[in-house]
Amino acid sequence: MKRSHRDLFTVFAALTVLLLGLTAYAGQALEDDFSIEEIPDSWSWSKVRAYVLRGKEVIELSDASIIIEVNSTDGDAGFQVFLDGDGWRNARVYDSIGRQVLHVSAIGGLKNIGGGTELFIESSEPEYEDLDGMLELIELLPEGEYYFLARTTDNNWATGTAEFTHDVPEGPEILNPIGPENEDGCVTGVFVDSAFIEWSPVTTDIFGEGGIEIEGYQVIVEADDDEAPHLEFSVTVPAATTMVSVPPEALAEGFAFTFEVLAIEASGNQTITESCFETAGDE
Length: 283
Fold this sequence. Notes:
Blueprint: H1 5-34, H2 45-53, E1 58-60, E2 63-71, E3 76-84, E4 88-94, E5 100-105, H3 108-112, E6 119-122, H4 131-138, E7 144-152, E8 157-164, E9 174-176, E10 187-190, E11 196-199, E12 214-223, E13 232-238, E14 243-245, E15 256-265, E16 270-279
Parallel strand pairs: 1-8, 2-16, 10-16
Antiparallel strand pairs: 2-3, 3-6, 4-5, 4-7, 7-8, 9-11, 11-14, 12-13, 12-15, 15-16
């Protein structure tokens, strides 16, 4: 049967309307898809990045870091992740080869109040038997640039990066306090009005090799006695400083105190040496 020009025009018009409708639907579906909060955890960073950059405004996180912390006294090590930004409802971290290693969400009341801002998370700190064991542990996360992604509560994306290294400093060697020790190995008879902590400068990494840059040291002193006043002292000093006086106000006579000296590498990686002392009693 021969169709008239009018019939053909009607069919063409119908097809045009159908195609326009499908195009509009596809556009709407794309927009709806982009508004979905949950990116699949299996996506690599390159795929996530392409997805994020195709649409809404991308802003910068205020801060992002990932470091290694080693306790040379206890023989354990772990990772610490930090990010900071405007209120976010979802945050993720990807390692240097693009794998997602962290995913956290603010939900319920926490999301409704405006979401998260600062986030600090510390991994478990398994013990290692020797330096080979420690190396195996820290190599669970490869060196390189790490990528941070957050979805803000006003539906924007925020990104950041952090350089992660395996440059771990040697633990500081404690030089003072020195003297007689109790059964717990704590130096005794430390006078409250003249207490100080001293250590050797750290010049090598934990494997005894060079190539590290010490940025500073942190000293933390805490009362280690249930009956002692709640006392604590903390200070961070530049790399050239290797001795800190403990203020008398942070101590009490006749009590046990623990202290840590942290060597902090330019990468942020840090190694702790722990020790303890007892203050002299009130004669």
